[in-house]
Amino acid sequence: MRLQLGDLEIHGITEIEQFDVPLDFMFPEIVTLLRDNDSLVSIDPSVLSYGQVHLTIRSWLLRKDDRVILIDGCVGNHKTRQHWPSWHQRDDDAWPQRLASLGVRPEDVDIVMCTHLHADHVGWNTRLENGIWVPTFPNATYLTGRVEYEYWLADSVAGDKHGSFADSVMPVVEAGQMVFLEDGSDIAHGLSVELAPGHTPGQLLLNARGVDGGAVFCGDVIHSPLQLRFPDISSAICEDRQQATRTRRYLLSRLCENGDFLLPGHFANPGWCQIRAVGDAFEMR
After folding, report:
1. 2-284, CATH topology level
2. Which of 61, 101, 162, 173 is least enclosed, having the fewest CB within 10 Å?
3. Count of beta carbons in the 10 Å neighbourhood of residue 121
């Protein structure tokens, strides 16, 4: 699947087609809303069924001005992720094969953009070579927010609760391939980043503008289409849930006005959509 916006070419690279999280863990307030209002039960089973929120884990590949840009690196292989069994010690070549099917070798990637540094967004940053973690994309400049990096650097001193900072971030920094961005930084013609805090303190979204429209790669500003219907409910794993709600409402309202495409990390295929307002909530259009 491809989204073409003039000179902006976008492909999704799926690693895990369906990753299920219990609704009462992910969005506990939604459980109450569904129970107390029978009119809200008509939810697409591809989004929610049997008490499980269905998420996809994917990267985005962006081509613009002869540059190859990878946005968010999924879970990756051989990573210790004991809290999430389907992520733990994966040994699956499907993701790199899908990258190759687009005519892209690791050495062809110019930029790797990390919207934030959670384990399911940075895994393919590195690969295991002779027992050592090395950058997967040898010629790429890796980008992430300075606020984000400094937050997780402090967390790593306290114990690295996600485990991904040591194996998927620091090897890139130590290789001299990581560049830290500030709010509003331009990374190429028509590509700029914007601070989108809440899910994590320093999450960035990437605004991309093509000659035939725009796209916003928003990381985990929104996890599920459930949050279009319930935009004031943030996930239980957001660091600052109230801030996450403000960021999400701001972005969704903006997209309703300008018609740009929304590209989160976890929506089902095709993964992108446009948004319209419905009362005080939103829906795909």
Report:
1. Metallo-beta-lactamase; Chain A (3.60.15)
2. 101
3. 27
